[in-house]
Design a protein that fits this description.
The chain is α/β, with parallel strands linked by helices. The protein is built from five helices and seven strands; from the N terminus they run βαβαββαβββαα. The structure holds inosine 5'-triphosphate.
Length: 194
């Protein structure tokens, strides 16, 4: 089965490739010639994931899925949330986003936060949603060189390391995206058994 993964984020693509069984071929947006930014104008992760998936299905008439992810910090009432990519501005700059978040949390003791991913799948004329959450905390400095986005300042519960210090295999086994992708793959397996 061929499925387009509607993301311009190469890090997401690499993570998801590692979780995709060999009978599913992931096609990137660049492979179908989609280079434009897909406007994320929804008011929730669910809406934005569907907007991205629908854009590809409607314009290219291809089965596809999209991921929308947010980092929700409890002391900030769920911010940056759906604005995680552009928290510090339109540049989508990870360093600036982390700096802004660390500034917002100076002197705040409740550092608890979670990543949440929603995946929207458009296949055979219907849409299905899958979710994944990982709980953790925002530490007060950046640690680690791997991963992307907010990984250097997010330490998942039960670990001493940030996501940027853990291997991709370990991150994928516990992460928001890893959990959502697992649910997606179970769904696809069930469909192919029908
Ligand atoms: P696409 O919309 O093209 O998929 P994007 O980077 O804009 O790419 P999102 O809209 O889902 O993706 O934005 C979520 C932002 O949250 C993303 O830019 C990162 O800054 C951050 N993020 C998402 N997943 C993450 C992860 O696994 N680890 C760290 N930060 C993450």
């Amino acid at each position: 089965m061929q499925l387009v993964f509607a993301t311009h984020n190469q890090n997401k693509l690499e993570e998801v490739k590692k979780l995709t069984p060999s009978n599913i071929t992931l096609i990137s947006l660049s492979e179908i010639g989609c280079t434009e930014d897909i406007p994320e104008i929804g008011k929730s992760l669910e809406e934005n994931a569907q907007i991205k998936a629908n854009y590809v299905t409607e314009k290219y008439n291809l089965p596809c899925f999209a991921d929308d992810t947010g980092l929700l910090v409890n002391a900030l009432k769920g911010a940056p949330g759906i604005y995680s990519a552009r928290y510090a501005g339109e540049g989508k700059n990870a360093e600036e986003n982390m700096n802004k978040l660390l500034d917002e949390l100076v002197n705040i003791t409740d550092r608890s936060a979670h990543f949440k991913t929603i995946i929207a799948l458009n296949l055979q004329g219907s849409t299905s949603l899958f979710d994944g959450i990982v709980e953790g905390e925002i530490i007060s400095e950046k640690l680690g060189d791997d991963g992307f986005g907010y990984d250097p300042i997010f330490r998942p519960n039960g670990y001493q390391e940030t996501f940027a210090q853990l291997s991709l295999a370990t991150k994928n086994s516990i992460s928001h995206r890893g959990k959502a992708i697992q649910k997606l793959m179970i769904h696809l397996r069930q469909l192919s058994n029908v």
